[in-house]
What does this fold into?
Amino acid sequence: MPTPEQVLEEVKDPEAWRGWVGQVGRVVLVLVIAWLLTRFTKWLLPRLRRSIVRILDRRREGVTLDLEKRAKTLSSALRKAINMVVWTLAVVAALKEFNYHVEPLLAGLGIAGIAVGLGAQTLIKDWLGGFFLLLEDQIRIGDLVVINEITGVVEEIDLRTTVLRGENGAVHVISNGSITTLSNLTREYSYYVFETTVAHGADADRALAIIEGVGDEIYGDEKYHSLILSRIEMMGVDCLGDRGVILKARIKTLPSQQLLVGRELNRRVNIRLKAEGIAFPQLLPPQVR
It folds into this structure.
């Protein structure tokens, strides 16, 4: 270890200063190159993604929206992995410029990694879960999913966590290793399940005909036709409830478009049933205690 006198002599030496300035300059150059590489990756991957989607779309190898979501999910994960590798190499190169031997550090990290790994089984489980989510294409960014009874739109998929945005704006961060049930509501196509209750004395057959007519009307509407994959499917009288007759139907749409179509279906059916005099169940009077 150098003595204070030796350090002071080195500080006064112009050659030492030139060496230090050279080291700092090289470190800055390494960090700038790493930053430029990450910016280039951020610029390149979206363009590469769009090109791949166009090629696959011309070959008819899937629905365009599905291809876009798949490509976006993979490019996001790939960009994070590239950034991590680039900055790791940049830090190692910077340490070497300051004559810091990284080999003992890496060896120490290897030994420590074995010890930490024994207590990091949950983290490894999360990483494996995220890896298979991406590999098996179970969900993509933009999908509407239900994970462990939590509903939301997928905003981000990492190796460790999946991020959902709920309808009320809440952000749900779920560890991939803790996922036990997963339902994808927007894979290749979606269904909007329509359900309404009419009074027991109402004409159920007439109500079903009105619902079917409204469904056909929306299917022929220029605004919604491109979002709907097939005409409304009437499921009929689902059951007889205490308050009335429950009618059910469903309509097949493009992925993630079922709510937009379903809300318009609800609005038009409500107007038409009221105009036709189809009665809804009466509200139960409040119980007096």
Remarks:
- Residues 62 and 195 are 31 Å apart (CA to CA).
